[in-house]
């Protein structure tokens, strides 16, 4: 066609609003439309807004049992799961150590891993890096999106040592923290990564990674919790949730929801008890 | 503001191509732009809407009347919006998104931009350029590089039919 019926040119702020409604696959394709579209779509603030956008469908990633190293990407729409794609992780790795905002930390083997990949199944992109220290104790992992740099930081913690890898700058920071034992999976919630760790006396502590200062810190537990309580962490509607079964009676559960925001003091106002 | 009781107030809206439309104030104030004019007392005579043409304004008023007739039931409102937008072509949707933005009608803005995204979702890069009137400012090498980087996103793209 030689003559096109051109629509009135939409200003960039309206184009941006329209693009927020698109799935990631279309967005990545439309980076080819023009340089200005590419810069709208590549803007970290746009990416973050798109992630928070409530209209985007919920995606789930599960290990595919039929193929070694493959994952199924499921989309939840209208209360039904649809399989979007079967994806192979980088190098076929399928040991998932932790995740944050849909980005997974993968490794080659669960025992003594040295090579790691951050994989985003939605954009089909990955970054590789190698752990450069020798930590002898069991490793704990965490991953945190740092809004100040619009990129991820990965935490490796073992015994009293921990190291932080900054993806943006490709640099490591090593620190000495407080001693703890064992491996514990954590959770990313409301801007920070949280774990429950046991010290030498088996007392459980809620520990979090503060990406603003690249340090691990202890979070004061709710006053109703004793040192003996077996507390766990979860993420509920992007808030940190602590929950704890009553000793000897798993039918009784108590929940605490951390107040939203970056304050880590006196943040336990609400709690629910299911008896 | 009009009183809750008594005769309903009617406003007269004027498009940029000088068409006049009568609309109940209760429906028109879905537009924050119009509501502000009413509250500031500038709605006595004719309200000029310099950025909206008659065809688009007629459509927006149909929407205003339709949606305000539905009681507070989000499900019903949503299905009205879906039905209202279902037969609109891309050019009409583009005019409506501009009008919704100018009139500051967040519910229409949301629905129309979601509808445009739905229409675009599986379209080609060329289709988007034509419909949005965008000039390709990449060199052939640059364009090939961007496409290569996201090769998988070009699978399952609809062939252009320009609808």
Determine the CATH superfamily of the largest domain in chain B: Potassium Channel Kv1.1, Chain A
Q: What is the CATH domain class of the largest domain in chain B? A: Alpha Beta
Percent strand of chain A: 35-45%
Tell the overall outline of chain A.
globular
**Share in helix of chain A:** 10-25%
Mean pLDDT of chain B: 90
Count of helical stretches of chain A: 4
Side by side, the strands of the main sheet of chain B go: 2-1-3
Query: Into how many domains do the coordinates of chain B divide?
Result: 2
Kindly report the CATH topology of the largest domain in chain A: Neuraminidase
**What does the radius of gyration of chain B come to?**
20 Å
* Termini Cα gap of chain B: 43 Å
Question: Biggest protein-protein interface?
Answer: A-B, 32 and 37 residues
CATH architecture of the largest domain in chain B: 2-Layer Sandwich
Per DSSP E runs of 2 or more residues, the count of β-strands of chain A stands at 19
Summarize the structure.
By secondary structure, chain A is mostly beta strands. Chain A has two domains: 1-56, no CATH class; 89-274, Kelch-type beta propeller (Neuraminidase, 6 Propeller), CATH 2.120.10.80.
Describe the structure.
The complex is a heterodimer of chains A (about 280) and B (about 160). Chain A has four helices and 19 strands. Chain A has helices at about 10-20, 25-30, 35-40, 45-50, and strands at about 60-65, 70-75, 80-90, 95-100, 105, 115-120, 125-130, 140-145, 150-160, 160-165, 170-175, 185-190, 190-200, 205-210, 215-220, 230-235, 240-245, 250-255, 270-275. Chain A is globular and about 65 Å long. Chain B has two domains: about 10-120, Potassium Channel Kv1.1, Chain A; about 125-155, no CATH class. Helix content of chain B is about 55%, strand content about 10%. Chain B has helices at about 25-30, 30-40, 55-70, 75-85, 90-105, 105-120, 125-130, 140-150; strands at about 10-15, 20-25, 45-50. In chain B, strands 2-1-3 form a three-stranded mixed β-sheet. In chain B, strand 1 (about 10-15) and strand 2 (about 20-25) form a beta hairpin. The longest helix of chain B has 15 residues, at about 55-70. The mean pLDDT of chain B is about 90. The interface between A and B is medium-sized, with 32 and 37 residues.
